[in-house]
Every structure is written in structure tokens, then in C-alpha cells.
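Tutorial handout. Part one gives the primary structure; part two gives the three-dimensional structure as C-alpha cells.
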Amino acid sequence: MSEDLLTHRGGEGKPIVAVHGLMGRGSTWSRQLPWLTRHGRVYTYDAPWHRGRDVADPYPISTERFVEDLGAAVTTLGGPVTLIGHSMGGLHSWCLAAAEPDLVDALVVEDMAPDFRGRTTGPWEPWLHALPVEFSSAEAVYADFGPVAGQYFLEAFDRTETGWRLHGHTKIWIEIAAEWGTRAYWAQWRAVRAPTLLIEAGNSVTPPGQMREMNETGDRTTYLHVPGAGHLVHDDAPQVYRDAVESFLTTLAGRA
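Part two.
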């Protein structure tokens, strides 16, 4: 059932849904929940192919599949929502806002751009393929991913009796990213009419200049560049991220 894809994390009032990035999971938003829940009724969402290593999805991999699934989950909340999306989650959030404007009344898009054409997953495929299915210790996770991403993945992976197990398949995650190198999402972005906060990492994975162009071409946008922060801005520069998102949410509430 679609409602099972959302986990209520607390708070009251307007629904807010946090949407994770590639290789992430709803559980990775733990450090943002204490303050997010002051601004509404907060849910986290687990995307297809990120729900456990043994949980299959019967549909072909595509952005459309992700957006359809997210839309089905959001529909169960009974009204328009604010979507807070990181990376892949940001892309799927703005695509949903473009396709179903009545479902989404505000967006946060963190470190994601519309056009990765010409870029391939080749440089990082060997590293991904080399990851073990299960890590025997937290130290092993930190060794592979570093302190910020290591903390993130410890929360994303399945906890087992013997360690931490990948909650999906690297082959599929590579296929998801590979699609972004074959198409652009500018049309979907330019169709968004919801107020949007754009947050770009100083050490961004996005093609240079695209998030600034999103700000220039968007309907109602606010743009923030966070120097020195990596792709996980919300964990790498947590206070800067919090201040920006809380200011955005407070402004929205003032307009209501």
C-alpha cells in the first residue's frame, strides 16, 4: 500500500515529506527531524529500489516510475505537501510538482540539477561494484565513505545480527544514475509553480551553473550556495541548511 511508503516522524499541521537521494533512505533524515517537526507533520519516504535488498519493484527503472510512486504516497496525506528533496529526491520532487501541481505547494531541492547528459557513471562504477554486501563494523563503513557519508549510510543500510547490509543493489543504483546521463529535465523544472528553495553544495555533484540557472528560470525561487559543503549539505553544513530551510518554511507559513 502507498501509505506504507511513508513513515510519520512527528509534528502537527501541514504535511512535510523528506525525500532521500540515490542510495539513501528515509531513516537518514534523523538529524533534521527534531527541528523539522516544529514546522509541520513530518514524514519520510523510501523510494523504489531502496526499501531493502530483498524488496523488488516490478516496474522498469525510470524517473517516471519514481515520480508515480512518490505521487501515490503523497496522495494518501489528503492535501498539498511540502517536499524536501536531496539529490535524486529533489529531482523526483520537482518532477512531481510539475506533473501534479495540486499535490505539491512548496519544494526544497538540495544539490540536484536538470541536465547530466554526457556524464557517465563509469568513473565511480568500479568503487560501487567493490562494495561488500555487508559491512561487519561501523568502522568499515566510515573507512569506505568517510565521516559524513559514513554516518548517513549507517542509517540507510539494513542492520543485521552481524553488521550493516546494503539496502539495495549497486547494479540497480548505477542504472538509476545512468538514466540521468541520457535526458534533461529542464522542461519539468520550468513547469514548476510552487515556491522552491534551491541549495547547492560548494563541492557540488551538479554541472557548474545549472542550479543558478534554475534560480533564474524558476517561477518563485530562492537560491543558496554553501561554500565548502559536500553533496550532503544537510549533514555537512547542518546549521546553514537548517537556517535556510527554517527561514523558507517560516516565510511560507506567513503567506498562508
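Part three, for discussion. The two ends are 31 Å apart (CA to CA). The mean pLDDT is 95.
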